[in-house]
Amino acid sequence: MAQKRDYYEVLGVSKSASEQEIKSAYRKMAIKYHPDKHLNDTEEQKKEAEEKFKEASEAYSVLSDPEKKSRYDQFGFAGVDGGAGGAGGFTGAGWENVNDILRDLFGGGFGGFGGFDFGGFGGFGGDDGARGGRRVYRGRDIRTRVKLTLAEINAGCDKEISLERNVPCPDCGGKGAVKDSDIKECPSCHGSGQIKRVVSGLFGMRTVQYSTCQQCGGEGKIISNPCKSCNGTGLVRKRQTVKVHIPAGVQDGMQITVRGEGHGARNGGVNGDLLLVIEEIPSREYKRNGADLLYTQILTISQACLGCEVQIPCVDGTTHRAKVDAGTQSGTMTKLRGKGLPRIDAYGRNNGNGDLYVRYIVYIPKKVSREEKELLQKLDQSENFQPVEKNNDDRSFFDRLKHIFD
Known about the structure:
The chain is α+β, with helices and mostly antiparallel strands. The radius of gyration is 33 Å and the shape is elongated. The strands form seven sheets. A four-stranded mixed sheet has the order 10-11-17-14. It has helices at 7-11, 19-32, 43-63, 66-75, 93-106, 150-155, 301-306, 370-380, 392-402, and strands at 142-148, 157-168, 183-185, 194-200, 206-212, 221-223, 235-246, 255-258, 274-280, 286-289, 292-299, 308-313, 319-324, 333-336, 342-344, 350-353, 356-362. The chain starts with 6 loop residues before the first helix and ends with a helix. Among the domains are: 1-130, Helix Hairpins (Orthogonal Bundle); 283-367, HSP40/DNAj peptide-binding domain, CATH 2.60.260.
């Protein structure tokens, strides 16, 4: 399956476009790829028009909804997965939503459909459809890695990212020409970027077809004196620093999309995105499992036998006083509820914190002195130091030991 295009690129609008501009852009595309305009096309051309229509409908269903648009701007496709189908995924209830959109845009004259059959709906005959617009370029995305400590992941942080990217040429202001008078309207397409062709079909029906203008390449203009600094592209390469916010609770390998911070685009098009891949710096104190953390606390033999209080360091920089019961066995686990990392759902919402698990390990020295050896031998003769299964707690402990290597 082909990689999905940015929704703003699909509709040919900028990220700052108003609701009316988004609606107008989709209206033009819906008319352009209406099946009445492709009745005499080949099967391949019909299929292409179908995919274009679905792609535009998916983009509009997200960008026309303020909540979905906000999630998409922050998290990209991950923020709206499930809310909009993939290219070709508008079936069933999804097509009902598209019908609602079309009725809202065009009124009841736009027929319904349930699977995108090119003969399945009508409503726009003749050649009064909207003419295609100029080509809208989109800058390339930039992918880079960001290293974070566990403390930064816990609290969230701001990072300054240094990168090289294409930006508007300062000498020509991104126009690609030395002077405004050097930019002329394309004589072939008259500035539209597309060539219109009217084709007569059956029963006197006429359809309108559009193709990219070959003379201007779809830009709608011709530059007679290109800028020497950017060679007419309107872009130059420059190293810049971008300040980005990393939300709390991210995980290693997760990708965060920063909209519009990638490479600039030609002719004032849509900037690409900055894709930040999270790289978690391994912690010496904790092991991580999702939002939960594991901390190992070392106890001396006397602490394990007699009981004590220990200070457990938490990932937020605080400490938690924990009571160790007398007779604590090595490998005993306790849980500090809510002392783990923030738990973030697919939409970036905080669902509380994970837990901090504390594992107690009793330290056994590798070497002992003669006096210590005599003391241990004397203790070994005591009944309390014999590994006898005396109660259910001891029995469950020994059962765990028996199966630890299973």
